[in-house]
Design goal:
alpha+beta; six-stranded antiparallel beta sheet; globular; 6 helices; Jelly Rolls
Length: 413
Amino acid sequence: MPGASRRSPPPQGRQPRGSGGPTLAQRRAQSARDKAAHVRAMNLSMRSTATVKSIPTGPPKKKAQLFTSGALKTPQFAPRGHGYYDAFVQTPDSVMVSATTGPCTVIDGYSSDAVPGGLQVSGTYQYQGETADGAGALLSATHSGNESLIFFNPGSSDDVVAHVYKLGIDPAAPGSVPTLQVVTTPIKVTQFHELGPTKAHSSLLVQHRDAHGDINDKRPGRRVESIPLRGSIRIRNVTEALSVGGSVRALRYNGGIQLNDDGTSGSDSPSSVKTVEQFLKVCEMVRDSSRTRVWGGGALCHVHQSNTYPADFVRSMAFETDNSFEEAVARPSYCTHIMLIDNFTASTNMANNSYEISVKVQRAARFGMGTLLHSMARNLRTGNTHPHTVAESSGDGLRPTGPVAGGRNMMVR
């Protein structure tokens, strides 16, 4: 209408007076809170970016700084637990030692072997016991079974990294009743053939013995010192599907084990004849241990893996030239992984399940001057390996390998 006053509408998003919206003070307070939250988010992002940028980068000559500076010096970034001691995944140049060792050559060894399932064996064996009147006597007992023991330890000074123990019939024993004996099958790594040979002595403290006394070896550098760095073992059930069954008990033990009988002669050589009595005792100890993990034969159709870890840091850093596998188990520098393939008889073939064992071991050795391997020696990185050992030893040992790492094809190198 002519002469009527016209009032413009309120701006978009602005409430007219009297509508009950936030006041100017409330809007300013909310704006201050939004700005503070934005500043906090920016500061957090900048700190994360600075942490990532602190990781050493550059040419290969700066690789020695890895895991010792920047974000990688913390256990949250450094490889730990199952990852660090995994010899199948970690490369030899990623190892760390807790003290300076000087130049040495890191060797990567691999072996894949089959542990065939055996038939039930029955027989007698002798053991030292007591008669009814308490007098000591050599007694006889019977046993029937097809169990197998697998000992894995990377701490020897030669090419033997594992032993497979089974019960068999002694062909030289007289009598109509079969006599049982322990049959030992060593698992050797070809890459370590230049290390050793070794020969166990009655005293673990006696060193510098000639393992091949019938050979006149005049090489000045004939003794190659070495220490273990990593050791991993994988197991897979390769039995046909209709015969799969039974159980495998896995245990990592950081104490000494001997399968021989020390007797009364004053000597106690770990490489002495293994007795059936000690074999059965170790089997029973593995069954009774609260730290033993039990796996069914069907579950082990997929690859499972376990790693060893230092059982004694002083021994693990001591370079040895003549430490046999029996001595490495009796006085371990790294823990011994024990697998008990327990008694089982399939209805299809009347035998136990067969397994494939793959081992990967990394060692540092000092070879003779002027040799090719000596020219490849380098100084190992030093650092705190304690967090890795704690994380590995607190785990449950044997565990399945994930599909990311290769899944069912993990046995292929």
